[in-house]
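Worked example

This section walks through a single chain of length 219. The input is the sequence exactly as stored; nothing has been trimmed or padded.
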Amino acid sequence: MPAHLKIDFVSDVVCPWCVIGLRALEEALQRVGDTVAADIHFQPFELNPQMPAGGQDIAEHIAQKYGSSVEQLAKNQEMIRARGADLGFSFDMSRRSRIYNTFDAHRLLHWAESEGRQHALKNALFTAYFTEGRNPSDREVLIEVATRVGLDPVEARAVLESNRFASEVREREHFYQQQGIQAVPSVVINDRYLIQGGQPIEVFEQALKQIASEAKTTA
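Given that input, the structure is written out below as tokens.
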């Protein structure tokens, strides 16, 4: 019998390390195979909740927020691109020049969970932003991406053009902030174990094996 693990993946759709963390986690789950039955839930975290409409130039934003120079940004982007390539993900830095507000994307992801398409939508949003350079705060882009993964575009538009799931997303964001999560990705397993950052596959694999073994022991 596989060990059943509840995995809460706390992240933002404009966080490159969240892409790396998710890809590594997915590969680790493949490696552990039948020993684990994972139930993944994507939880909202906004890196820039006050970001205005239209977003902000990435270089300007990084300089203001972290004090990084253009040279440091280029070095970090190359490291991220290489890590992504190793995991089969394409970061096209030339097409991604701005960072955006992501609240609507999180509302759409919340709805997609009830439709059984949350995981697919999460990956599609990562691709739309980091590979295609699309704007994840643009509702037309969000509807297009939702349709791409088999969600109803009419219902997606209805969600986005209303205030549906706004309070639920805010509540989840507040919950994880209250738990002390201030950076993403943060991976919470069985409401007890925390793995932070875009860790290598091997780190996730070892953690999954250990937690699965403990879960079976206490079952």
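What to look for: The radius of gyration is 17 Å.
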